[in-house]
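Before going further, learn to read the protein records used in this course. A complete example follows; check for yourself that the lines match position by position.
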Amino acid sequence: MALSGPDRKLRRMPRKRTGRGCGSGGAMAAAAAVSEAWPELDLAERERRRELLLTGPGLEERVRAAGGRLPPRLFTLPLLHYLEVSGCGSLREPGPGLAQGLPQLHSLVLRRNALGPGLSPELGPLPALRVLDLSGNALEALPPGQGLGPAEPPGLPQLQSLNLSGNRLRELPADLARCAAPADPQPHRQPPDAFPAALFLPGALPLLSELAAADNCLRELSPDIAHLASLKTLDLSNNQLSEIPAELADCPKLKDINFRGNRLRDKRLEKMVSGCQTRSILEYLRAGGRGRCRGKAEGPDKEEGRRKRRERKKRESGEGADAVVDEASRLLLRVLHVSENPSLLTVRASPEVRDVRPFFVGAVVRGMDLQPGNALKRFLSCQTKLHEDLCEKRTVATIATHDLGAVRGPLLYAARPPQDFKIIPLGRREVKAKDLVRQLQLEAEEHRKQKKRQNVSGLHRYLHLLDGKEHYPCLVDADGDVISFPPITNSEKTKIKKTTSDLFLEVTSAASLQICKDIMDALILKMAEINKYTLENREESSLSDPESDAVCGHGLDPKATPGAEVTGSTPLVVEQVRVVDEEGHLKVVYPSKMDLDFAAAHVTVLR
């Protein structure tokens, strides 16, 4: 791309010495300062890149110097398809020129900044934009002129994914649907704390596949959401919803929903959204459920009478108070304490990790059944999703899972120079960490050239997390083998297989210990859900396949686990793992009494 005005002169003209403090010399000095402050822009322009990521500790100061905006020169890179600016507390507005300068932009990620209370100027029109992520900012409203783009003509006609989670929004702009696609030209009034009615008009957003508005103040979800024919993912967690419309089950492509953190009137549904699979929740809604149902709503007295009759029948049949929770959705976890476990796994943390990736949490989980069908695939997909969401693409934390049978303890969590340790990465041969990073960098560059864009996948997406690090973190077993290299990969030596039933889990972070614990809680809960789902489907298939039990093997004996007979299901056993310092002093043990403290009643933790 050709450089404009002062930048072109800067490259072609020799540097002149002048005593003047203004004029052309001052302009050239300013241009040189901007170029020096933003080397990423020079590189993107020189290599004609189509993807640009701006993040890291130095970004905040540079954006503050630019007046809380992105540098105008960024908007002179018209080849960009992907732009991400994240984790910058001084970025308050994108700045003018974005729409005019980046007409080919497909994905715009501006998460975890300080955008707000509105967007001035508005983002659009961006005719090619498909993914827009404004999560984790300080947006309060998106009125016309300070929102996503013009309504006439549509400013975001190709939009497929919109993420507004973690803002302060109490309502969305009424012209959002018209901004994203042609719709009814008449304005539609909508009460506060809800999506605008125009958003869900038939044909308003025919391409929208993902809608995320978590951590806001939404109180109502319209039944007309069923008109989003392409919707696949819906995240409305941590809002103020009291009802979920049954019509949600009519979305033909919906695969993943998240309503956790809402105080629903239907208490059974509230428990289900905290732990059940999306399919089970949609089936419950489709059948009518309780609370808000299809058709004419029944009075509260009639519904209360039905509830009391159901509870009375349960008591008369000998079931206790716990039977109010649907047994089919009950998840069991048993915690095995240090005192009960003679073969306790211990991790020793060396002092060098303090300056690299200081926080480590480990756990052992026994009783997983990964053999039937796609159980292993579901488990690996669950880990990937946690990396994308809770771990924020591994920038906050990283998960690694190991076949416990291949782990030789005690373990050492250390930080070493990249040329001083080797690992056998998943699917690769043994290599030094330094050479592995270099190899991945070359692969990423080759991928960009072949695809003629900068989007990369797999391990290549996380290489920037090691930039500037003189030591890399690693987990070493008793044989001296490196079994984990966070945040990049773990070892082929401890790879999870279909036959794996006992796992060692680790979560590492440079941010905080609590983040590690929260993510470990979420991982173990997901494992319990997957195991429950696998068990139920295996039992169904065994009715027609008597050999399936012989193929799949068996878990723990329910008689040996107190409480297992409550629901007839086999619990996962979670064994504590201790992390100690070099002198053997305890740093952390997981799970402690404060961990695995799930509010959902469908989860039973036996301690």
